[in-house]
Amino acid sequence: FGRALRYAGTASSTQDEARAWADDPRDPAPHGAVFVAERQTAGRGRRGRGWDTAHGSLVFSVLLHGPLPLPDLALMPLAAGVALQRACGVGGLKWPNDLLTPDGRKLAGILLEADLRGEEARRAVLGIGVNVHAAPEGAAHLGEFVPGLSRADLLARVLAELERCLAASPDAVLEAWRRSNVTLGREVHVTTGRGTLSGTALDLDPGGSLLVLTPEGQTVPVHAGDVQLVG
Ligand code: BTN
To answer: Residues in domain Biotin protein ligase C-terminal (predicted)?
Structure first.
């Protein structure tokens, strides 16, 4: 990844820039192409939120050409989280893929957007934002833990780990995620499109869904949602 790379001082969202590059008939972006920006004016996060691109953060998107079968796509955010954790060397993963400090502040986030065609994705754009030298209010930055790390070095490390992790088998991804997570065994509130669910985060199912044990003793698989760690 990253052998084709474009950089902009200011971008709306690197997600959109990567897509536009892929659609450029004169010079279409190849698989693994990376778009990096210094600033984003319309950075986006998961579940319709914005992403505040703090000064000194690393924001980029990787283009993945399909066809990508949907089961592979479901594990991709988990694999990307593992790659990010390895590259940063600190923190743990909150399901599905937020990198948190030991005291629960967010260091980095991942957004996977897929352009679907029937039962598969024609392509996907994997966006990563890491607070490297500064962080928005309430979040953390990597410099607190790894002083002197340059964004260029971090980008190179993340891209190398991503290539490895996205090529791993589903079982290997799930096992690696279990080893790097701070979610399983915890009490959680999960916000999904269908409401809020509270219980204990038990495990992942083979498709990467989070299994939550409710106080009524039911185990509910959560395919997509936002987890709040309680206590
Ligand atoms: C999240 O935690 O909600 C995901 C945040 C993802 C942010 C990155 S920054 C680079 C890429 N471009 C965007 O607009 N979003 C992602």
So the answer is: 183-229
